[in-house]
Amino acid sequence: MRSLLKLASSLTALATLGLGAGLVTPAMTEAAQRPHLHLIFYSAQGYDAAEAAAFQKATGIRVHLSDMSTGPLLAKVSAEAQNPKWDVIWFDGNGAMAALNQQGQLLRGWTPSTAKNYNRLGRSLLPKDHAYFPTGVTSAGALAYNTKLVSAKNAPRTWQELLKPEFRNAVGMNNPAISGPTYPLLAGLFKQMGVAKGETFFTKLKANGLKIYPTNGNTLQALASGRIKVAMFQDSAELYAKRSGDPVNVIYPRGGVTMLPSDIAISAHAPDMAAAKRFVTWVLSKRGQHVMQDIRAAGSDSLFQPVTNQIKPLLRRTGVHWINVNPIWAGEHETPWVNWFTNNVVR
Amino acid sequence: MGFRTLNGMAAAVVVILIALPLLALLLQSIWPDLFSLPPSLRISGAGFNALFQDPYGIRSIVDSAGLAVSTAVIATVLGGAVAYLLEAVELPARGFFTAMTWLVLLAPSFLIGQGWQFLFGPGGIWAKGPLVGILLSPVGVALVLSLKLFPFSTLAISGALRGIGQDVVHAARLSGASLWTTWRRILVPLLLPAALAGALIVLAEVLSDFGVASTLAQTANFPLLTYAIYAAMETFPVNFSEAAALAVILVVLVSLAQWVERWIMGRRGYATRWGGSQNLGRQPLARPWIWLAAISALFVVAFVLPAWGIVAVSFESPGGSFGHWTLANYLSLWGRTYGLDTFVRSLGYAVAAGGLGLVVGIVVSIAWWRRGGWLIAALKALTTTTIAIPGIVLGAGYIFFWNQPILGRIGLALYGTPAALLLAYVAGTLPYSVRVASGSMVQIPPNAIFAARTAGAGLTRVIVRIFIPMLRDTWFRVWLISFAGVIFELPVSELLYPAGAPTLAVGIIHQIHSMRFGTGAALTVISTVLMGVMVGAAQFLQNRCSRRDEHKHSRTHWAGNRMANDPPSAPRLSAPRKEGKFSL
Amino acid sequence: MSLEILNLSVRYGAVTALSGVSLAVGSGEIVAVLGPSGSGKTTLLQVLAGIQNPSRGEVRLEGRTLARPGLSVAPERRGIGMVFQDFALWPHMTVVDTIRFPLETLRTPRREQFQRVSELLALVHLGSLGDRYPHELSGGQRQRVAIARALATRPALILLDEPMSSLDARLRETMRADLARILRQERATALYVTHDRLEAMAVADRVLLLRSGQLIQAGTPSELYEQPSDCFTAEFMGPANWFEAEVVNVNASPGAFLTGTVSIQGTTLLKARVPVGVGPGTRGAALIRPEHLHVVKACPKPETWQAHVTQATYLGAHWQLQAAIANGPSVTAYHPAAVTVGEEIGLRYESNTVWFIPI
């Protein structure tokens, strides 16, 4: 063991020398020496790069963005738990935010001045301790149908109509074990129908030939190409397809759709707390809100339902009955429910 | 510097680069709270328990093992056939097909995967054909992986074919064996170790693959081990202990495969080259056009079709109708983040990681070429079994280890810096490069080293003057594979890239997630082409060097089973490379 | 005749590797093919093995034509065994598997296979090593395996391609005798290619000397050593001392050569053997092997040259010395006792051992 330690320390010295000699770029050394001049920003949003650029331009604060999928983002944040490196995180789904808050990873009790811009929807989603801030809302799952295969008259208006024989082998959705926004859809339906009836619904749907695809993209392609007639997945992706000219129309079923808030939060141990606070304030400002709607940069993510009174939605959602699922309640059931779904529906 | 120092350095490198970061994650399978807030040494079986309760847990292990074995078999058959055509017979346009083999090997796997999706996926050109059913099934997954990975087998078996001397064949023929018997009884067994080595690499690649596991395999409802690891890490709260338990099982699977390989090899010695200094000749091919068509078809399916899929998407106008060609996707790559800047950045990482990885690989394999103590043996075992560690496991291990607050206090807070990503890249390629480099090391006769040392050469000189020139070709190939692997690396990059400085794969994924498929495809195409040009240039330079030294290295017998004072065997020189009519 | 080679030529493009070689080998005879690098000896072996095709001529084994231009019997149908230079053992086969392989391909009954294998193992003294792999054997043991494999099916002809070249010097000496024993015990007809005259002489009944693809001389080892047809052969077969010579007279004598008198350096007259057909007045070279020059330290007698020692080397069994003969060439000689450089000595020659080569 002693020799091992000796080896380790000699390599450490070697590594330091080697790295010091050539591997460390100037930017990195700078970052290591003056960690409090930059915003370290982890995000899984389509508009994050545009937002970071606009903020940097407006304030002069350098933003270092790590853009990745929600999964790796959460894995990264969790692995850093002992020594967080990030200032701000931003992703869809308040379940993980609530859990991070429970672990004490988020800054509580601070409120940005721009929080006064929140509309009613926004205020309803703001947690009491102000540990994270909603920035927009999409639906975890609305219905979309192929307009070439289904007439507007015959389009399903409720979840139960998906069980009709005419939609046999023609309904598709994402796998909640793979696709991020799909568990909230499941949890919302279970809340709406009750767990037992929810399970019955999905069992019947499977009996009616439900198709399971990995993620939004696959389900959308299946719908647009006519392999399925109806699909349920994140409504921003559905709306984006419609907007891009795919033969797709979106319906918000009468029973209601699960709300999927995008939330932004500051680390309780943010290396650059000041910059972090300025950034969150900026995002909720008028200019920040407009950047989120730059659809050329952000794609489907821009088609959210605003939570502030500063902007109007790019595409209007009509007849939406939002269902707000308690993230802590949903989080507690995630593993058993996803397992149930995998065992009984996916297979 | 002496051999002892070298051993120590090699051990330290492996400990720092691989052992400690991996242990930081793997230990959480038993100590789930090792890095929690507050940390604790509580032992718990919860990780393994979760694994057994996870509906994907056990099934994904069985699926992955089955897929890995069947892919290894298919890839070995395919790769062996290609190696035979390239090395043993007079196939026209051999050089072209050799280059194609390299192209398939170096092509980023998600280029292939994305291309297949485009062709056969929902909305694809053949989305309704009968092939879709096959493709979106375990068989299809195995076929797609085999088509991507067979070059590993081809390389291994080609090398072995080149290493077999003609005399072992002559000896068999003169013993009364027909051509068929000679293949069956002599050549196939002689190629077996190389075939096994190739198969093992394919197996490890399959076990650690995520690209196909997360796309095709999921669409086919065929859960795989790597996917289960990702799932465990991506549900929240993140279950690192289950992911660690799965990773432990992965390591066990690879160790098992290696053990089987060793068991098959038994105590047969394949170390030295056997059968004379003259290589096997190429046999004339009876109906070259049939074979030419077959091998062309293979490369069309393995590379041209999926690549065409990507290229087509890259010229599609964003959001526009199909069939309307545009350069907009390419133009949009200039001067913006998540565009060509990511390629330049990844190129830098790839050059650095390839070079550093090569140096580390050389040090480690030279140190291990000699017999070491128990520590070396243990590290050797660790390095070879970690050949199949998925990127996300390595990446998470790197965060746990390199983000330790204590490292920050001694100025080694590498996490979040380019250095951590670079080291992780090196760690990711090291098991492969050490394996290949150690394999090539046996070509060097011990006497060549002793001769240099008695001539007064120190270790550094021995490395520079003996090891490097003798094994340059092998190491160049190792560098090339590391280089290409790093350029398009995704999972490690995603977890470790310094904020604000995305790498190429992160950029491509960013474009695809933003539904800008065309831009993502354009970025893929342009980086692949640029990389291809660079690899081609490097290969060209390397070939020129090799050709210059050919008389020194390739043709001359230096495998060390002859004494130095032996006279050269003259008639072989008087009739250079004259191949007999029954040569193979 | 077991093996007949008729006027065999092999050309690769412009290079002639063999030209017009003829040879007949009797059953059970061991013939060494001797020659320096590039003499065509391996080409000859390759033609016999079926690795090379002849450009001209014919090869017959036990009356069957094996090769001539346009015809070549496949190697596996020739009934020839071969021992390769580096043995060409199969690394994945044990000793027993290796030796059994030719028997298997010949479809010998299984019991006979094992019987023959154990017989061969005993013959080559490898009795206890049957389950070893090649890499677990020493060089000498590998060679024995290669020999046993070549002998396994009792082929009509065994080819040995420099079989000693992979062995160290000491092993070579023991193997030489052992190989001769094994081949004789098996009554094998063998063609043994080597560049080492000692090997050729130790193993072979007859030696074939090749140079530049041509047959220079064929004969028993002693014929080549004692009555070489030219200076090249003489030098190749062993150390030689040369004197300018002219035949003075010749006596008819029964046998392969004549006896006569030659004058050396224009003065000394000595008795010599002269090739048939050489008459008085023929100029040439007189060959005296070093072992036939004796150092005498006391009073010089007739048949003795005065010489001056220029170099002396201790070789254990004797001293080898270089001496300059007064008004003559520098010569090599051996002496059992110490000689010092600069010493004046007498060199006595054995007159009947002198061999005359016309030039």
Task: Report what the structure shows.
The complex is a heterotrimer of chains A (347), B (584) and C (359). Chain A is α/β, with parallel strands linked by helices and 347 residues long. Chain A has 14 helices and eleven strands. In chain A, helix 5 crosses helix 14 (327-346) and helix 8 packs parallel to helix 14. Chain A is globular. Chain B has 584 residues and is mainly α. In chain B, helix 18 packs across helix 20 (418-441). The longest helix of chain B is centred in the C-terminal third of the chain and has 37 residues, at 517-553. By secondary structure, chain C is of the alpha+beta class. Chain C is built from eight helices and 21 strands. Chain C has helices at residues 41-49, 95-105, 110-123, 139-151, 169-185, 197-203, 221-226, 231-237; strands at residues 3-12, 15-25, 30-34, 56-61, 64-68, 71-72, 80-83, 157-161, 190-194, 206-211, 214-219, 241-251, 257-264, 268-275, 283-288, 293-296, 304-314, 319-325, 330-335, 344-349, 355-358. In chain C, strand 10 and strand 11 form a beta hairpin. The model of chain C has no long low-confidence stretch (mean pLDDT 88). Chains in contact: A-B, B-C. At the A-B interface, helix 1, helix 2, strand 1, strand 2 and helix 4 of A face helix 1, helix 12, helix 18, helix 20 and helix 23 of B.
Write the layout of secondary structure elements.
The complex is a heterotrimer of chains A (347), B (584) and C (359).
Chain A (H helix, E strand, L loop, with lengths): L1 H22 L2 H8 L4 E6 L4 H12 L2 E6 L2 H10 L8 E5 L1 H9 L17 H6 L6 E8 L2 E5 L24 E4 L7 H12 L1 H13 L3 E3 L2 H9 L5 E4 L1 H9 L4 E4 L5 E10 L6 H11 L2 H7 L2 H4 L23 E2 L3 H20 L1
Parallel strand pairs in A: 1-2, 1-3, 6-7, 6-8, 10-11
Antiparallel strand pairs in A: 3-10, 4-10, 5-8, 5-9
Helix pairs in contact in A: 5-14, 7-8, 7-14, 8-14
Chain B lengths: L2 H24 L19 H8 L3 H31 L6 H13 L2 H12 L10 H5 L2 H26 L2 H9 L4 H30 L2 H4 L1 H4 L5 H10 L5 H26 L22 H27 L13 H4 L8 H30 L4 H12 L5 H12 L2 H5 L8 H24 L4 H9 L4 H29 L3 H6 L7 H10 L3 H37 L16 H5 L10
Helix pairs in contact in B: 1-16, 1-17, 1-18, 2-13, 3-7, 3-9, 3-12, 4-7, 4-14, 5-14, 7-9, 8-9, 9-13, 12-13, 14-25, 16-20, 16-22, 16-24, 18-20, 20-22, 22-25, 24-25
Chain C lengths: L2 E10 L2 E11 L4 E5 L6 H9 L6 E6 L2 E5 L2 E2 L7 E4 L11 H11 L4 H14 L15 H13 L5 E5 L7 H17 L4 E5 L2 H7 L2 E6 L2 E6 L1 H6 L4 H7 L3 E11 L5 E8 L3 E8 L7 E6 L4 E4 L7 E11 L4 E7 L4 E6 L8 E6 L5 E4 L1
Parallel strand pairs in C: 3-9, 3-10, 7-8, 8-9
Antiparallel strand pairs in C: 1-2, 1-4, 4-5, 5-6, 10-11, 12-13, 12-15, 13-14, 15-21, 16-20, 17-18, 17-20, 18-19
